[in-house]
Design brief:
This protein has 10 helices and no strands. The protein is mostly helical and 263 residues long. The chain is elongated and about 115 Å long.
């Protein structure tokens, strides 16, 4: 019974997604209502609310469904040809968007543009590893930058590149876009890693310098003590010398008085 219910739910949601897709291409997202969607799908309005809370929820489900459809067509990971394969996957992504140019162009207009941007960014972030040949944990370990920050940065860059390409009527082919993005992404991430390694070297140098300063600081009091001891010894020796000279002068004094009295 549960399987039949699951299939029924999946079938109903598919009908609603297809209805929304067709209406978006015809009128745009902002101009359609839940009633329009259910009427076009030949379903009751109450049926809609059994599956979604609002129109935006159905729109999100539509974009997720399209993303899953695309991901299912990608070749499996192959570490031997990782870099080449990732460029191919990027080309497939740009080609997929190109084939649905009208849809993506429409949903990037009006109120739906912000919603589209947020959902697409989330989808790319969740699946960015599919297009990356380097584990982002490596960047985190080397640079100290948070994993989530690095992932968001790379995903946002890809999303912005896709939207820029669409907004400018796709001036380059999907293959050219994939190649350019892969190159820029590689050099950018390389610089991030390089700066991280330089930061590590700088930290080591700073630590070594600090340790040397601490050792010198610890040695300085000893030097001062030695110097003060030497000064004390000199002063004591001088004092002893003065004391030994005083009795000799006192002994000569009586002799002088005797000679004077004889005369």
């Amino acid at each position: 019974m549960a399987r039949k219910d699951d299939r029924r739910i999946q079938r109903t949601r598919k009908l609603l997604r297809e209805s929304m897709l067709e209406l978006i291409l015809d009128r745009g997202y902002d101009d359609i209502s839940i009633q329009d969607v259910t009427d076009h799908a030949n379903l009751g309005r109450a049926t809609f609310y059994l599956h979604y809370r609002e129109k935006d929820d159905l729109f999100r489900d539509l974009l997720i469904s399209m993303a899953n459809e695309f991901l299912a067509t990608l070749p499996k990971q192959d570490k031997k040809n990782d870099q080449v394969l990732n460029v191919k996957k990027l080309e497939m992504l740009f080609s997929y968007v190109e084939d649905r140019f009208d849809f993506y162009r429409i949903i990037n207009m009006g109120r739906s543009a912000l919603l589209t941007s947020a959902i697409v960014a989330e989808l790319i972030k969740d699946n960015f590893r599919v297009f990356s040949s380097t584990e982002i944990e490596v960047y985190e370990n080397v640079t100290g930058l948070p994993f989530d920050f690095l992932l968001s940065y790379n995903a946002s860059t890809l999303k912005s590149t896709l939207f820029w390409w669409l907004e400018n009527d796709m001036p380059y082919t999907a293959a050219e876009m994939a190649d350019m993005f892969a190159k820029v992404s590689f050099y950018t991430n390389f610089q991030i890693l390089r700066s991280g390694k330089e930061m590590d070297r700088t930290k080591l140098n700073d630590m070594s310098k600090l340790m040397r300063q601490e050792i010198q600081a610890e040695a300085q009091p000893d030097n001062k003590d030695d110097a003060s001891k030497k000064e004390s010894k000199k002063a004591a020796k001088k004092k002893d010398t003065n004391k030994s000279a005083e009795p000799a002068q006192e002994e000569q004094a009586p002799g002088s008085d005797t000679i004077e009295s004889d005369e």
